[in-house]
Amino acid sequence: MMPAARESLLDAACAALARRPWAAVRMVDVAAAAGVSRQTLYNEFGSKEGLARALVRREADAYLAGVDRALTAPADSRERLAATAEWIAAAAGENALVRALVTGCWSERLPALTLAAVPSATAVPAQRRADGPLPSPGDLVVLVRDRAVAVLAGPDGGTAEAAELARCCELVVRLALSCVAAPPGEGGVAGLVRGVLRRQPA
User: Fold this and answer.
1) Quick check: pTM over 0.70?
2) Closest CA to 87 of 202, 193, 3
3) Chain centroid offset of residue 167 CA
4) Going by C-beta distance under 8 Å and a sequence separation of 6 or more, which residues neighbour residue 97?
5) DSSP 75
């Protein structure tokens, strides 16, 4: 199957999930919405659980891609970290799957998935990846922290400076995640992050 067709099926599954709980989403309806046969859907994802894992994997990848965009924006380090924090809070606020991934709180409306890898007999590379381990909230904190350090450290950063930067980046990520559970007031998440970063070395 072409990647575009796989994306269409995932889009259809995401739209179905927005309208009803995952338990009520039917494979035949997802296939029809994407304009393919139910057998084609099963050939691509293997099962409804495989479709759910692929959907969660795609949302995790999109979340990390948004982090990368924020970190590479044309701005100074503090503003890039503030933009990253804003992205984390906004993505989790707008997308129930991202919110579940970053908080570990999976509502009854969402797929009930194990984050551990599952047996996979598929020949579809993208599905083999989806059937592998899915990131936990702790994994995502580390992934975002390490991405931030890699982008912001620069070639002259020594071991001590890198350790301090890693601590600062993790603090920003965790502050952003706290804003998912308890949205901030005036100034928003970026204002909170800027306030914290003013106290950090440049």
Assistant:
1) yes
2) 193
3) 21
4) 17, 55, 56, 59, 110
5) S
Torsion of CA 33, 122, 54, 151, to 10 degrees: -140
Q: What length does the chain have?
A: 202
> pLDDT of the chain along its 202 residues, tens only?
667 889 999 999 999 999 999 999 999 999 999 999 999 999 999 999 999 999 999 999 999 999 999 999 888 888 999 999 999 999 999 999 999 999 999 999 999 999 999 998 888 999 999 999 999 999 999 999 999 999 988 766 567 678 888 999 999 999 999 999 888 888 788 888 888 877 665 4
